[in-house]
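Support request from a user on the community tier.

User writes: "When I paste my structure tokens into the form, the page sometimes reloads and wipes my input. The last time it worked, I copied everything first. Here is what I submitted, just in case something in the input itself triggers the reload:"
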């Protein structure tokens, strides 16, 4: 899951401020009780304001973000779809709450990755990006959110289509544009700029063909990604360069993660470890790739919320299966399938990917 940038706050009416203050307090505090507290706040807001009120819908979006970390993807898609439909009845398409909900719904639809999900998400995300560019401009915050949403979905297409060179190059361009926008607005060392650069780094790996069949997966899990540690956007050259340059760039971006200000949270560590693992795998350094993937797996294991960091818990084991000794590879792939079976439906392309890998390993 991409990490959605914080929504800019509009001017709140006096009667709304107490609801917003309570929402902010719960989100900032986080912790294991956040989901229950948000659920109580949502029930209260719906009772007092109505389910279609913008404040109720804003609380609903925050509640769904929290609940999405601990429940099966099918349930999450259905929940976001319902909230999206409610927002469409009472709010305009350009309302920030509507745009936040639309982004959450389409991100999770793409992540579920049933055979038709990716095409549906791509169609809707392209339309949403075009609409926001037209009505809000290229440099608006919400245009940037739509830009990263589309880039991540484009980098999921290898699950569905074998030849995705054009779409990975498009994803690299979108990610580079967003990385540059965030660097200009937020600064080169802001965590959201880092996330946008991490997406670009993953996209560049995929666009150059480094580690064919493995590199595009990094971007799907890492969410928004970086360009360079310096904060420099690559612009139209995002998809250019050699495979070796793309690998070196991805490692630079992953290493830059630890130099950012603030605590190095588990989500950021997971994303950096997965990007590192995929870069080493693309460079044919299986030992280094396995060590980075095992770090990500270990971080997943100690988290109470398995979707922490926006990456599926099966991804580290897929990387390990592709790098490990022949005797262990099938077992690691089976672990990946077990992890994904807990969260994805039976017809998800994520489960199909691991099943194909198991068949390949069994036939060696």
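"...and here is what came back when it finally went through:"
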């Amino acid at each position: 899951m991409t990490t959605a940038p914080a929504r800019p706050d509009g001017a709140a009416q006096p009667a709304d401020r107490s609801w917003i203050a309570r929402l902010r307090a719960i989100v900032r505090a986080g912790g294991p009780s956040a989901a229950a507290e948000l659920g109580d706040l949502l029930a209260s807001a719906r009772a007092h304001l109505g389910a279609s009120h913008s404040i109720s819908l804003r609380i609903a979006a925050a509640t769904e973000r929290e609940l999405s970390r601990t429940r099966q993807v099918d349930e999450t898609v259905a929940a976001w779809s319902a909230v999206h439909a409610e927002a469409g009845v009472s709010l305009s398409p350009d309302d920030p709450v509507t745009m936040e909900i639309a982004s959450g719904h389409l991100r999770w639809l793409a992540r579920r990755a049933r055979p038709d999900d990716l095409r549906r998400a791509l169609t809707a995300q392209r339309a949403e990006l075009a609409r926001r560019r037209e009505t809000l401009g290229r440099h608006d915050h919400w245009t940037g959110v739509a830009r990263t949403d589309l880039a991540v979905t484009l980098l999921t297409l290898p699950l569905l289509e074998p030849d995705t060179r054009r779409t990975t190059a498009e994803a690299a361009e979108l990610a580079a544009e967003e990385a540059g926008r965030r660097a200009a607005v937020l600064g080169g060392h802001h965590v959201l700029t880092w996330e946008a650069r991490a997406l670009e780094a993953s996209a560049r790996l995929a666009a150059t063909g480094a580690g064919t069949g493995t590199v595009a997966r990094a971007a799907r899990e890492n969410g928004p990604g970086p360009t360079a540690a310096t904060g420099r956007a690559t612009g139209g050259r995002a998809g250019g360069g050699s495979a070796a340059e793309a690998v070196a760039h991805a490692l630079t971006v992953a290493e830059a993660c630890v130099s950012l200000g603030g605590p190095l949270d588990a989500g950021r560590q997971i994303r950096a470890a997965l990007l590192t693992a995929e870069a080493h795998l693309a460079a044919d350094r299986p030992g280094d790739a396995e060590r980075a993937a095992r770090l990500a797996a270990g971080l997943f294991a100690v988290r109470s919320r398995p979707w922490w960091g926006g990456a599926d818990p099966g991804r580290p084991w897929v990387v390990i299966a592709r790098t490990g000794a022949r005797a262990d590879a099938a077992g690691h792939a089976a672990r990946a399938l077990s992890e994904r079976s807990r969260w994805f439906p039976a017809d998800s392309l994520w489960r199909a990917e691991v099943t194909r890998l198991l068949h390949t390993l069994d036939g060696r």
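Agent notes: The reload is a front-end session timeout and is unrelated to the input. Confidence is low (pLDDT under 50) at residues 210-239. Residues 22-27+34-109 form one domain. Escalated to web team.
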